């Protein structure tokens, strides 16, 4: 088997600008969330959740965190079939 040399990755100016903008957005969300948790008020918590793109208190749970990660990477888990007829269909001999 032939070995291939590692692929070269190029970092472009657009990539760094996009990274900086995403980083600033995340820092702003984190700052707003910390202000909301510090006791500013209940109404601000709701507004932060709406602004945060639906990331609410459920994201702190393991299932909510897993859902956010799956959504971010585009993974849609399918339940595994538990019975033989669902695995093989309706085979008749």
Automatic annotation (TrEMBL):
Asked whether the UniProt record includes Cell division among its keywords, one would answer yes
Endpoints of the signal sequence: none
**Compartment annotation:** Nucleus
> Which keywords are on file for this protein?
Cell cycle, Cell division, Coiled coil, Mitosis, Nucleus, Ubl conjugation pathway
Q: In which pathway does it act?
A: Protein modification; protein ubiquitination
- UniProt GO BP: anaphase-promoting complex-dependent catabolic process; cell division; protein K11-linked ubiquitination; regulation of mitotic cell cycle
* UniProt GO cellular component terms: anaphase-promoting complex
Q: What is its main location?
A: nucleus
Q: Which family does it belong to?
A: Belongs to the CDC26 family.
Report the protein name in the record. Anaphase-promoting complex subunit CDC26
Q: Which organism is it from?
A: Pogonophryne albipinna
Provide the organism lineage as a comma list.
Eukaryota, Metazoa, Chordata, Craniata, Vertebrata
